[in-house]
Amino acid sequence: MKSLSIMSHRTWYFSLCYLAYASYTFNFIMLETIRPKLMVMYHLDDLQMEPHYKFFYYGLMFGSLIFGLLVSNINYRTCFVSVAIIQVLGLVKLLSLSPIIVNTPAIHQLKSGMLLLGIGGGGIFSIIHPLIALIYNDLHQSKTKIMNYLHTCWPLFVILTCLYETSTVIFNWDWYWKFYATLLFTCIYAVIALFLPLPIQTHTHRIPISARIRSIVRPSYVLLSFCMVCFSVLQFSPSHCIRSWIEIDLQIRPIFLVIYCCSIQLVFRLFAGLIAQRISPPGLLGLGSILSAISLFSLSIAQHPTAILIAIAILVMGSSWSWPTFISIVADRYPLSGGMGMGVINYLGFITMFKIIPRFSEMVAVENVHQAFADMGKFSILSIILIVAVFLSFRAQGGCKVLSAYDRSM
Prior knowledge:
Elements: H1 3-8, H2 10-33, H3 35-41, H4 46-70, H5 76-94, H6 106-135, H7 144-150, H8 153-170, H9 176-195, H10 209-216, H11 219-236, H12 238-249, H13 254-270, H14 272-279, H15 281-299, H16 305-320, H17 322-333, H18 338-365, H19 369-396, H20 406-409
């Protein structure tokens, strides 16, 4: 597709990606809210439900890798429509509405439904980032700003989803309505993808898989991947300690804490691009890791509720821009990797949430909450060292600039 046509449809492309992201967010949050209902529906207790719920995370990891590979080899319309169909099929099977329910044990419906919803969510992440990188490809400007704009969808729709869930409780709506709402965003972005003239990958534009693999096995990319894992641990693991601490000791309702944290995250993602223009994307990550270290050490000694809430705010500030900034660095520095490079980063984020953070939380669970935060603070020092190494690596390669390999790939 010619660049002029892409420029004229930028707003529509961004809206499409934002709605797809909103669909993923609704699915993710609503799965948590209806989990007790699913346990009753499938006659499972909490321990029995846990291994089946993991299929959702398996799907996230699988979808991020598979669609990260496919998006660079088939057109975007096919990818978006395929992901939408997978999400609808996952919902149908999860709620035991599949036409083959007579011949399929109910527990397999639960597993396959979770897996399909996860594949759909991981696929969305692996489609929207390459599309945004393509339509906002500018050699004179990093994609950090637009990627953080895109990721404002998460805090915004977490707030909206929590408010929607609260309204269903207040008005005593049937719990099925919680999931029917996700179909709204899925259907909207599927219809837009069907009729919007999306970019098409012709045979001459496709990059061999071997070239993509060579791009992501470079030492600097591997180092960046380790940074992604460390930052994901710092972003998600404190929430386990904070939730119990806030609810039990400070007597603050969870929904207020969610709105408080998501509002801070939303604001700082809006301003991440301006900060990155002054200190570079790796500098932005370095600032975030320093703020995380300060906040975690502060939480390890804080006693007063006001001091605790301020330290939590600093922690959210530091971690708010990490995921979208890593994606933008891959888009800027490793454009030949395409969707595969961004998909690997998404995969590392999901596998950290699924595999590493639960084990990390088990390690700190045996300690008191203040000691747990102190240990996390020590771990944050590792992230500072790694991001300094990334910065020096980029500096040795000519600085933190946007590379022009996209001229060869698109």
